[in-house]
Amino acid sequence: MRVNRLSRALRSAEDARRPPLPDPPEVGPFRRDAWRSPLRGPWLSSVLSVALLVLLGIVVLTGFLSHAAYDPGLGQNATSDALKGLYFFAWPTDPSWLYALTQGLHVVCGLAAIPVLLAKLWAVIPKLYERPAVASISHGLERLSLALLVGSSLFLVATGVLNIQYWYAGLGFNFTPVHYAAALVFVGVLVLHVVLKLPIVASALTDDGVLRPLRAGRRETRAPALERSLSVATQPAEATISRRGFLGAVGLGSVTLAGLAAGQSLVGGYLRETALLAPRGRALGTGPNDFPVNQTARAAGITPALTGADWRLTVHGRRRLVLSRDELLSLPLSTHRLPIGCVEGWSTLEAWTGVPLHGLAELAGARDSEELVVESIERGSPYGRVSLSRGKLVDSRSLLALRVNGADLSPDHGYPARIIVPALPGVHNTKWVRALTFRVA
Amino acid sequence: MRDSFRRAYGAEPLHLLVALATLAFAGFGFVTAAARPDRLAFLLWFGGAVIGHDLVLFWLYAAVRRGLERTGRRLGPGGRERAMRAINHLTVPAFVSALLLLVWFPLIFGLGAPVYERRAGIPLDPDLYLGRWLLVTAALFSGSAVVYLARLRRA
After folding, report:
1. CB within 8 Å: A136 and B11
2. Residue in A16, A114, A122 closest to B6 by CB
3. Model pLDDT, residue A16
4. How many beta carbons lie within 10 A of that of residue B35, not counting itself?
5. B88, A245: Cβ pair inside 8 Å?
């Protein structure tokens, strides 16, 4: 079997181990017989690894897709310059709920992974105290990578969880670029970990069967054979819970965490209020403007004086236009039901009315424009100026929205005018727009 | 040649290649974060994440669990079997409730309230999420009690 050959090639050679560092004394947790749970062993670690790989695989993929959704190659869009060249494709506008889905999955699967991650750390913790602490150079590299793996995974989960709760005081750094950089650390060491451990997982699940150990009740639960892993107890105590009970508790934790938050990711409906423990699952009322905002006008420093009768939209293209809100309302308008998906994982579906962006491009003599630069009245925000790719301009549903659900936009929702583009991350649907520049060659 | 490499390194050459490639990539990510002006907070957080669970959190919950088991054992051989089962009906809902608290404590205790209110535009009533968490906790323990009773009757 190919996996076994790879396993042999990668396995640390036991016979070659010689301790380059003095060992920790054999006391406390460094004594192997201090670890008593009969549950620990290759099967339990492997089952948790597979679950974790699936959940964190989704989290990593949707995380990098979220970065791609900002089109970091355009203008000042990139929140981090690291690996900017990777994002060579323009984020699509179809299906319109794409970003709401990927970012909802990112947050919900991230939450669901937390109990599995903790259980996995519990299952392998005796290995933290293994002796010799560093047996060879290869062993030292593996242990370094494990420290980075544990550190980066807990870092990502903890900072993500604090960010969606707005506890920035507890963070102390700019979340987006640092979360992204830590994800690069995580991906690097995860690849090494998977390559090294995949053969062990495959043989553990082959030897024990994927489901067979679940059959044993608490009293039939025995420790696996000693030689199979360092995590196996040498003098196992009586089991206090069966393996299925343990995994059931972990699963209940995942389902509860995810289930009490997932509602805020739904674009509509009463299920939203099932998000009892999530920042944005709350019902806001029944008015046309009663749906969540990422940021209020007050927080963005938008005053009535800036958005009153003197407000004008400047459109640059081959021609320059200056339009009042009434003039915009007199142009041909379209209405589309489109979601806003927030990077924090919540979303909302509303009916927006406004001037199609391709109509404005035509008025400015820039139908062939490759890039639209949107500027907001809001100052000092990284999203005060964003670039939209051509694909967003030509989609007939992309709007400079003036009204929502039949009413004027409220100040918090971007009055006098805001961008609404299908499948675009919420913060790129710029509010309080003051200028549009259709770039032409 | 290959044997002497194995002796010096402790594994096959392929191991070294994969380890260097992946660790270099991880190092790139780490340096990207550590080169920023807000690096101090990042380094403190990352260091905390490396040791925070394994050296602190693990030992806290291990001590709680061990305490409960000791209490169960003291109930003597007759009550022991029932006690073992009862302990799990306490620790499982307690585990889920503690998880919810661990994840949502800033919301439950209103730590991010000033930012939340400015950003979301709605008040964060200090008791809202605390109340919800307590209700969910009550539901978890009630569900566990119902299952426990059902299992006692069946036994």
Report:
1. yes
2. A16
3. 46
4. 10
5. yes
- Specify the pLDDT at position A27: 86
- Treating both helix axes as pointing N-terminal to C-terminal, what angle do A243-259 and B76-108 enclose, rounded to 10 degrees? 20
**Contact B5/A at CB under 8 A:** no
DSSP helix, strand, coil percent of chain A (3-state; round to 5)? 45, 15, 40
CB pairs under 8 A between A and B: 248
Smallest Cα distance from A277 to chain B, Å:
7
B28 contacts A145? CB cut-off 8 A? no
Q: How far is CA A119 from CA A35, A49, A125, A440, B99, in A?
A: 15, 10, 10, 55, 12
pLDDT band at A86 (very low <50, low <70, confident <90, very high): confident
A273 pLDDT band, cuts 50/70/90, is confident
Question: Are B38 and A174 an interchain contact pair (Cβ–Cβ within 8 Å)?
Answer: yes
Interface check for B96 against chain A (CB to CB < 8 A): the answer is yes
Considering only CB atoms, which chain B residues are within 8 Å of A412?
121
Cis (ω within 30 of 0) for the bond into A95?
yes
pLDDT for A79: 86
Contact A173 B45 (CB under 8 A): yes
CA torsion sign for A182, A184, A188, A190 is: positive
What confidence tier does A5 reach under pLDDT thresholds 50, 70, 90?
low
Question: Inter-chain contact B41–A171, Cβ cutoff 8 Å?
Answer: yes
**B8 touching A (Cβ < 8 Å):** yes
Residues A192, A196, A202, A204, CA torsion sign: negative
For residue A117, give how far its alpha carbon lies from the nearest alpha carbon of chain B (Å): 11
Q: Mean pLDDT score of chain A, rounded to an integer?
A: 92
* Helix, strand, coil percentages for chain B (3-state, nearest 5): 85, 0, 15
Q: Closest to B32 (Cβ–Cβ): which among A159, A162, A184?
A: A184
CA B76 to chain centre: 32
Nearest to A406, CA basis, from A304, A287, A308: A287
- The predicted model gives A378-407 an average pLDDT of 95
- Give the pLDDT confidence score for residue A24 in this predicted structure: 78
Residue B22: what pLDDT?
98
Supply the ipTM of this predicted assembly: 0.95
Q: Which of B69, B104, B121 faces A277 most closely, judged by CB atoms?
A: B104
Tens digits of per-residue pLDDT, B19-53?
A: 999 999 999 999 999 999 999 999 999 999 999 99
Angle (deg, nearest 10), helices B13-34 and B39-51: 140
Predicted confidence band of residue A87 (pLDDT cuts 50, 70, 90) = confident
